[in-house]
Write a structure and sequence with these properties.
This protein has 311 residues and is an alpha/beta fold. It has a single domain, classed as TIM Barrel (Alpha-Beta Barrel). Helix content is 46%, strand content 12%. It has an eight-stranded parallel β-barrel, surrounded by five helices. Helix 9 links the parallel strand 7 and strand 8. 47% of the residues are buried. Bound molecules: the ligand CC(=O)N[C@@H]([C@@H](O)[C@H](O)[C@H](O)CO)[C@@H](O)CC(=O)C(=O)O. This is N-acetylneuraminate lyase. Homotetramer.
Length: 311
Amino acid sequence: MSIMAPAAHRKLTGLVAATFTPLTNQGEINLSVIGPYIDYLTETQGVKSVFVNGTTGEGMSLSVEERKVLAEDWCLKGKGKLDQVIVHVGCTSLKDAQELARHAAQIGVDGISVIAPSFFKPQNAAELRSFLQEVAAAAPNVPFYYYHLPAFTGVNVTARDVLEGIETFIPSYRGVKFTGFDLTDMGQCVSCSRPDWVVLYGMDEQLLAGLVLGVDGAVGSTYNYVGRHMNELITAFENNNLIQARKIQFKLQELITFATKLGFNVGVNKRLMAELSGLHLGPPRLPLTPCAAVLAENLTEKFHSLFPSEQ
Ligand SMILES: CC(=O)N[C@@H]([C@@H](O)[C@H](O)[C@H](O)CO)[C@@H](O)CC(=O)C(=O)O
């Protein structure tokens, strides 16, 4: 693929869908679904930006080659339809992450994001920043977002500490995707951010709390299928209609709590999205296992009872 001009540095705001990776029943990447997937997000859910190859997309379970192919296809098919395509390039191998970052720059993504390596774990903010810096340097003109997900990585360094002086290490730094319950840490990321940086919240069940603290947007798995309701929540919040905003937030909380009690993971979430959108997303990849039919039925039923307009 030919080298494209550096991505325009536009602020990333609003809802960003953390995309699922469509697989065939044989477990291979299924690119034929990406076009209809983009139409579903933009036309049915009103969600215009995507976060590809992240947790929801099982990025860490995909090969480097598969991740490149997916990133290219989302960029190609999203042209003129999506506002921004952010590609997660984090890996446990620094070299692989740099290769993905360089590739992302070549195909003209709007941003890259990197999670902390989680086998050999950075022991402090300085070590983590050094890793992020080395990856970012492989794509110096591409907006960079630190992906904070301590519950999965086991790297328990506050995001605020990672952000300390980050612009001197990573001139392309533009924001943090903060997935965690620690609202104090997230608030401090908001308060230390420059006006051209963003904080994107990754706990869909607490988006309203994030908005109160000043986040600029949100990256999440559920925006794939509740995007239009959560867009209504954002509008209600902006209009100071907290009663309406809470009403929508409470529905999503109820759905996620219900799902969690039954055993919610990316495989289950992927199946729910497939049921609601009609897209053939296929099974998850091992070690995740396919969602049982009865669980999918229960969740779909619960979804329709909470969001009846979708039926
Ligand atoms: C740990 C996890 O998967 N968190 C989700 C949330 O959207 C999450 O599914 C939701 O808040 C329900 O708990 C996102 O933050 C993940 C995400 O953005 C990604 O796929 O990279």
